Structures are given as C-alpha cells and as structure tokens.
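Shipment paperwork, digital attachment
Item: protein structure file
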Amino acid sequence: PVHVAVEHAHRTEWGRVLAGVAKACGGDLGLAEDATADAFVAALEAWQRDGLPANQGGWLATTARRKAMDRLRRARVYAEKVAELERQLARTSSAPEASAIPDERLELIFGCCHPALSREAQVALTLRCLTGLSTPEIARAFLVPEPTMAQRLVRAKQKVRDAGIPLRVPAPKDLPDRLPAVLAVVYLVFNEGYAASTGDTHLRVDLCARAIDLGEVLVTLMPGEPEVLGLLALMMAHHARRAGRVDADGEMVLLADQDRSRWDRPEIAKARALLAATAGLGLGGRYVAEATIAHLHASARTYEQTDWTAIVRCYDRLLALIPSPVVRLNRALAVASVEGPAAGLEALAELAGELGDYHYLHAARSELLRQAGDVVAARAACRRALDLVGNDAERRLLQRRLDSMPSP
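Attachment content:
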C-alpha cells in the first residue's frame, strides 16, 4: 500500500511540489528537482514506519523544502535562499498545504517557457519539472535520442539558474509571445497520457486529467484566446473517448472497434461548446483545427458515418499551419478512408525518410496493406512496427494484429 501511495503521489503531486520548492529557492530547478526526488524517497520509509499522512501533498511539499534546505546547508552557499526556505517552512509546517496550486504550476510553466530558452528546451524542461516524466519518455515525445534529450535538459536547467530566470506568470502584454510554448507543453503532457510512450498501459488518465486541469486554468487566465479554448476542446474531445479505448482487460481498442456508448457525452458537449466559442474570436490556429478533427470523430454516430472528407480538409488547413510529417501521416489515413488504401499508401510512401523509425508509420502501412490484400507486405510492416514500439499495450495490439493475418 505504501508503494502504491507513493507512486500515485508521484503522478499527482510531483509538479505541485517541485513548483513550490523551485519558487522558494529562486528558480534553481536542479536543486528543486533533487529535493523533490529526496522527498519521495523519504516518503517510502516514513510512510511505512508512521502510516500514510492525511495530506500527502502537504507532507511531500514540506519535506522537499527541508531537503532543499539540507542540500543548501551542506553546500554552504545561497544563504539568502536558506533564509527564505526557513520562512516558507515556518509558514507551512503549522498548516497543511492546499491540494491544488494551479497558479503556482502555471508560474513554473511560464518560467520554464522563458524566451531566453529555445522552444525545444522550454517544452522539454517543463515536461520534466511539471510532470516528472522521465528523460526517455520526453525523448520519445520529441522523437530524438535519449542522450540528446538528457543534454538538452541539463543545459536548460543551468541556464535558468545562471540567468536568474523568474518563475512567474508574465505581464498581460507578454502573454501572447509566451503562450505557444505553454500550449505545446500542456498538449505534450496530454499526449503522453493519451498514448503512453512506455510502460504496460496504453492510457495514463492521471496525465490527461493534469493537462486538462492546466488547460482550464489557462482558459480562466486567457478566455479570449481561441488557441487556448481550442486546446482545451481538443483534449476534452479526445479524453471523452477514454472508456472506449480499452477493453475490460485494459487492452487497446482501435477507433473503428470502440463501443461509442461508453464515450463521455457530457464531456463531448463541453468540447463542442468550447470549439463554438472560438468562432467569434478570429481565425484559430493548429489547436482549433485539431479540435475540429477530434470533434468530427467524437460526434460521429458510427465509424462508417465519420465525415472523412471534412477531416481531410481540416488536415489540409493544419498542414498549412504546421507542415509536420506526423500530420501528413494522419492525413494519409484520412485520405485512405475517402479514396481507398492505395491512395493512403502512396501518401505514406513519401514519409519513409522522415518517419522511418516511427512505429506508427509502419503500423499504418501494415493496416492499409492488409486492406489492399498484400498480406506478405502487411506482416513485414507489422513486424517492423513491433521492433520499434515502446509501449507494452501497443506491442500486444500489434502482435494480435500480426497473429490475425494469414501466414503466406
């Protein structure tokens, strides 16, 4: 029970605890991350000995501040930071911390998304600090090697510390310039929950809920920004299908086979309302376009009744905004639903150079080749996808698909 509690707390409290420590010690993210990790290690022993605390997040936050103070004392530096931590510890030791600190987490996001950092560093650093995602998980999200991502994270934390980058929500006039990176962070957190890059389960509902929570805070902060509304609508439309995306055993279920009666219709309605609210706010960007695609999927009564022609048009608009090979891959699948598997395969062939190590490309090719009747090539593509996939649930799905194809 203690290990389960610590694991759950890591998923739900890591970002809040780290944000509080980082703010208290002047933005030293390296120190904050080490102290937060120390607190979780201490929890394993203390909670086993003393029992689970009533407010686990408060216990972790207080312990992390103490651990940070111990580290600073051992180093005999940052005397002012030690004093500030002592003041914060005195304020928090007598009263438990609040269970939700959305503004403090947003301060951490905006601090990590400072324009002094490159866009890649902004997103990677915030994913690491806010969610506690591992370096391999973040590397997979960026489609880069793990050592590259590790170096990027180290350099980013050093720059935040050395440049004294403040961890705070910027002034209103500066919000638009800082917003794209923040939205990218929130969406990548959601994506890791929606389709986990590693591990045994396909879904990490806690990460999805965390991203939606941050999206709602952003909507409160910037209610007139169509992209903010679009991102929240996009995440809600996807998250509404969570119950249909896995079966009773927790195994993945493809969109075409999902039981749509299990989808969360009130959440789909919320997504629709958010998307409608963007109409009077000017032309939206990528998140409004993606939310429209997600809504077209979520609102279709059956898979066969999906408006694939409208989805292809949405992907055309999305490609004009972000000419990403992953967007082109998804568009190719939509084209296949309109024009047949041959058209989809022709579009996928153009992506082999850019996405040769991306397992979704080979999984998509396998399915379209199977539909086209080329079972030998379909099996080969499926085996290539199996070689590349990192998530065990997806691996099992691919293996079931491979086993279902007749051997030549």
